[in-house]
């Protein structure tokens, strides 16, 4: 029997723009993935996946929900520094890649690469980082009418950011 794409996830939860794939490893979240609506929901394989599903659902139901999930210790020291700065951006606010770069004493392109390498979207809200002249890319995608930039637009609009 051919494996299904859902098989790589410990759970898949429906969200307003499609689905979120959840990968766990032991007692931590290894990865969260934005997925199109074509992905079927999948019941959680373990307690951590169930906790992530519950919190993702709560995020979309409660305006100021704060995640509390055990995340795998992955990424380079620089990526973790950028992700920590991004995690501090309040709901409804955005910073440009250049503004984040100044805060972490780096370059905008390096910040953009760290954003694209984010293993934990929503929890680390890279959608709140934009280009100086507009939306910018998202999850290493920059197709104007593509799925990922549609997700970024949707998330920002949900938070009240509509002028990009």
From TrEMBL:
Keywords: DNA damage, Methyltransferase, Transferase
InterPro entries for the chain: MethylDNA_cys_MeTrfase_DNA-bd (IPR014048), MethylDNA_cys_MeTrfase_DNAb (IPR036217), MGMT_N_sf (IPR036631), WH-like_DNA-bd_sf (IPR036388)
Domain Methylated-DNA-[protein]-cysteine S-methyltransferase DNA binding per the UniProt entry, residue ranges: 77-161
Top enzyme category: transferase
MF terms (GO), sorted A to Z: methylated-DNA-[protein]-cysteine S-methyltransferase activity
CDD domains linked to this entry: ATase
A Gene Ontology BP annotation from the UniProt entry: DNA repair
Organism per entry: Glaciimonas soli
Protein name, as recorded: Methylated-DNA--[protein]-cysteine S-methyltransferase
Lineage: superkingdom: Bacteria
This enzyme's EC code(s): 2.1.1.63
A Pfam short name: DNA_binding_1
Database matches in Gene3D superfamilies: Winged helix-like DNA-binding domain superfamily/Winged helix DNA-binding domain
């Amino acid at each position: 029997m051919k494996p299904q794409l859902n098989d790589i996830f410990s759970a898949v939860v429906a969200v307003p723009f499609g689905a979120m794939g959840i990968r766990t490893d032991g007692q931590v979240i290894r990865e969260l993935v934005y997925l199109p609506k074509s992905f079927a929901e999948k019941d959680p394989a373990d307690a951590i996946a169930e906790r992530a599903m519950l919190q993702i659902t709560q995020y979309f139901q409660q305006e100021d929900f704060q995640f509390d999930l055990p995340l795998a210790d992955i990424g380079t020291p620089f990526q973790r520094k950028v992700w920590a700065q991004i995690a501090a951006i309040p709901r409804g606010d955005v910073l440009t890649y250049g503004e984040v770069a100044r805060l972490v004493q780096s370059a905008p392109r390096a910040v953009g690469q760290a954003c694209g390498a984010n293993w934990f979207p929503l929890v680390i809200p890279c959608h709140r980082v934009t280009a100086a002249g507009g939306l910018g890319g998202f999850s290493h995608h920059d197709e104007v009418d593509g799925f990922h930039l549609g997700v970024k637009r949707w998330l920002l609009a949900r938070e009240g950011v509509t002028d990009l």
